[in-house]
Amino acid sequence: MSRIADRFAALRVRNRTALVPFVTAGDPCPAATVPVMRAMVEAGADILELGVPFSDPMADGPVIQRASERALAAGMDFGKVLDIVREFRADDAETPIVLMGYLNPLEAAGYAGAAERAAAAGVDGFITVDLPPEEADDLAREVRAHGMDPVFLVSPTSSDERIARICGEASGFVYYVSLKGVTGAATLDVDEVAERMARIRRVTDLPVGVGFGIRDGASAARVARISDAVVVGTAVVARVEESAHAPEALPGVLAAFIGELRRALDAATS
Amino acid sequence: MPDLANVKAEDRLIGRYPDERGHFGPYGGTFIAETLVRPVEELRDAYERCSKDPEFLAELDAELRHYVGRPSPLYLARRWSREIGGARIYLKREDLNHTGAHKVNNTVGQALLAKRMGKTRIIAETGAGQHGVATATVAARLGLECVVYMGAEDIARQAPNVFRMKLLGAEVVSVESGSKTLKDALNEAMRDWVSNIDDTYYIIGTVAGPHPYPMLVRDFNSVIGREARAQVLEQEGRLPDACVACVGGGSNAMGLFHAFLDDADVALYGVEAGGSGVETGKHAAPLAAGRPGVLHGNRTYLMQDSDGQITPAHSISAGLDYPGVGPEHSWLKDSGRATYVAVNDDEALAAFHVCTRTEGIIPALESSHALSYAVKLAADMRPDDIVVVGLSGRGDKDIQTVAAIEGIDL
After folding, report:
1. Across the strands, what pairs with B124?
2. ipTM of the complex
3. Contacts of B54 (CB under 8 A, 6+ apart)
């Protein structure tokens, strides 16, 4: 079993909803990321989503766009993202790490080489925003061949037929994008999310995570009851941005925020 | 003249590409966020219906005739050809279209499609502003709300077009992210679309983007080549030896080339912007100096670094300033059916002046790239050879740029 499946199995036993924060690797500088990852795990994160910066992040709102720009300006590339994962893995062998990004850096690295290097560094899954299942066969094959999970997105516009197809291709978990829009957009409608979750669960036994529009303890708590994982991206990255001038303060700032989300999730599910 | 009936079915290019999933060989495809899959499928279905609907086609034809002013002339540049002393150069005069460029062929078609789909809001990206103006124009005519995304850099260098769009009732949104040029405007338009898919139609301005855009924009522009082919047959009694067109995203070039794809004796030349010189890295020539990757919904040649980050394009002409290119051009390059070359800023500028002085036609700086290469080509050909050049737009929008380069204060 992959680390992701192990982690969800363990959380299920404890009736705990996974907390999945997102940070862009190398934002605001390469040295900042590993301490931030450790602090977030310490404060209650169960799985980490690590953004691979890209020059043209079409599906992201301004907050995550700027994170990508900061990381690239600081010299990040795919190889350095893997260095971060490797360093994190040196003293955390259990917390799953999912790389989230766009296809072109993987095209440039070559799918087979990228998957092999990522697996060796300790990566557990890939979310590739601009890669729907229709075009995903080659990459998904390489990701699976190296024991990792290709994670796919389901959106509010996905038909039941597509949901079934996407869930058929996915492993690890399914990521439900709860809003029509870019990351960091408006607030979400929990009733609509609940209705969509029911449709997804009819066709898959995989854990289902919800992301987009979760910005604080209260919104996380509302989603916690209906999902297996709560993904928080823009709200985390916005805090990185606020403290970008003082990277040494970041672990403390993010530990406080993740702690708040953790308590809200646990209160909602207990 | 090559007879189409003699082209074996398996060798035929027209009608064979893209495949049903939008692939031109290894290029093209649908690389988009999941939320956009449904709107893109709806567009594909609507276009499939409309492209077979005689009523839609008749309406499009009437718009092109009475609003755009088609057919555009195929004009023999007699004096210039004589001065060069080589092949006869014909200019396909897309500069004479309403709004001054080929872009309107596409926006008229897509706006009719948007109307059929019941969309009430139009968005577009623009580089030089020609596509933005052409979009704002048709939106005004059809009474649709219009928002145009334009890079902050381009807004600064194309002020007259910005004002034209505003006069036409469009909202022009300045894009401050990334390199603040066309590629970033496209990113921003995609972000708008994904956030407003219920009422919004995205008119992409070139033969790029996810399927069906590369096919659909090509089809709406292919009127250029259909007319040129018939006109040259009428005026010269035979097909040309070569067609030449500038390539940014590549919509005017695809429009000119498409009708000639199965005429194996007609050489096709796409001219990219060489900027300060391809060897300097400051250019907009992904086919000449890039490598395949995925951007803006399709796989194609891109300007990128070794990590797959897109590198900024540089060109004197904002309309060619794009680090990617339509996927069908990538396929035509690899298959050898078309040849792609680069022309530098200074060469394009020289052609701009010669065309203006010799033929009394001020060409767009984009088109000047094609003119420059056509002159080189024609010089080595015989006087009874024929070269057709896509004169994709008029240069009125560029006079400030040209004046600034030459140190003239207007």
Report:
1. B148
2. 0.95
3. none
